[in-house]
Amino acid sequence: MTALLRIASATVRFGDRAALDGVDLDVAAHETVCVLGPSGSGKSTLLRAVAGLQPLDGGRVLLDGADQAGTPPHRRGVGLMFQDHQLFPQRDVGGNVAFGPRMHKVPRARRDRRVAELLDLVGLPGAAGREVGTLSGGEQQRVALARALAPEPRLLMLDEPLGQLDRSLRERLVVELRQLFGQLGTTVLAVTHDQGEAFALADRVVVMRDGRIAQTGTPLAVWQQPASEFVARFLGFDTITDGAVSGGVAVTDWGKLPVPDGTPEGPVRLLVRPPGVLLGPADEGLLCEVRARTFRGGRVAVILGVVGAERGPALEAECTLRDAPAEGERIGVTFDPAEIVVLDR
Ligand SMILES: Nc1ncnc2c1ncn2[C@@H]1O[C@H](COP(=O)(O)OP(=O)(O)OP(=O)(O)O)[C@@H](O)[C@H]1O
């Protein structure tokens, strides 16, 4: 199957620094791919290169198999929605949404029908006559989305689409967006620095670092098996330590940890995901003391120090509020081998 979008060895340099450094990425039709990464990792440059707003210094961008070199942005059939969605303030909602179809000389009656349909879809039925200045931030975002969808782009690209909205609104909109893209069969390439947003929206996530792809996979696969320390820390996992593997176990600051079958002997870097840190009575397993508790939604992150190794790295467990031990309490820790990940160095 041909990818709808193929990015092959894409390279963009600013001076002697590569903002994109040989990036390869395919996006299939109807797929939603979210590009994640810290500030400056090249996410926006990647979108701009696909849109034709940023020339490549090397490599190619293909849409439906056709090399886009020399094709100007407005002929690529891609829709773009930026963080500062920049609605036209002098036009009403309908005028904003109809902008693309008008440029493509779509007849008025069809245009009006399309505007009404799209406003229904984004949850703003009947809003065509409203002034843009009277809309809330979330409503403006929806209008920007309807405007980007109006010309029926073969690829929709979103740059921090929900960036400026408050968290609860973002969480709601991201669910709506996912439903909407599923319903329309839209192919989406989105950029965000917010992992929660990416994981909720994407069929596949791509984590970038310094202009390169650090990891790509389904949200679940990346979450459960971060490939490297960089990806693990970017996702917020800090329970990482060195170990020495021998005979199927790793000797670490946290005692002997089971490692996955096939892990080579010798030094390793290990991540213990919080669900793999199991709490029990103080006389069983590794003796730890609760240093702190942090509330995260309905769960509690329990930060543990190993008794007798106070300077060693902290462990983090995850509990329900009811099961969370109190600060200062001593408990015994055992480890679930399924949650131990060997990281690439
Ligand atoms: N026009 C430009 N001129 C010079 N350097 C640039 C230009 N555009 C981007 N860069 C540099 O390229 C690198 C990648 O930038 P890019 O905007 O793609 O990152 P990003 O991952 O989207 O970051 P953010 O999350 O902060 O938007 C950065 O180091 C940036 O400073």
TrEMBL record:
Domain ABC transporter: residue ranges: 5-235
UniProt keyword annotation of ATP-binding present: yes
Gene Ontology terms, MF aspect: ATP binding
InterPro entries: AAA+_ATPase (IPR003593), ABC_SmlMolc_Importer (IPR050093), ABC_transporter-like_ATP-bd (IPR003439), ABC_transporter-like_CS (IPR017871), Mo/tungstate-bd_C_term_dom (IPR008995), P-loop_NTPase (IPR027417), Transp-assoc_OB_typ2 (IPR013611)
Keyword hit for RNA-binding: no
Pfam family membership, one: ABC_tran
Keywords attached to this entry: ATP-binding, Nucleotide-binding, Transport
Source organism, top-level taxon: Bacteria
UniProt-recorded name of the protein: ABC transporter ATP-binding protein
Lineage, top ranks: Bacteria, Bacillati, Actinomycetota, Actinomycetes, Kitasatosporales
